[in-house]
Amino acid sequence: MRTTAAPGSFALSARRMLNKVPEVTIFFWIITVLATTVGETAADLVNDRLGLGLTGTTLVVSTLLIVALVFQLRSRKYVAAIYWTAVVLISVVGTLATDNLVDNVHLLPRHCGG
Length: 114
Prior knowledge:
mainly alpha, 4 helices
């Protein structure tokens, strides 16, 4: 049995998704750059403060990211606190994952270049 989507359902779905992200303005880009920059500092700070080691900290912060993403995906509209929490946590988890690759797996060199 084959079903087809109702006409315009893709457009409606796309509109719903766009309602969950902020308008792209100069402030969006400033906050995005700041959130990305915060990732490195926050990852190091959380790792030092929790005392769980790099892997333990990565697991804890990854769990927080999953929770934030669940809230973001369930939200029917843009909620700044949920959206930007997810963005910052993505940056922190990405930094922690890279640190794990460098320090624990030795997959990447510690310092590149001069």
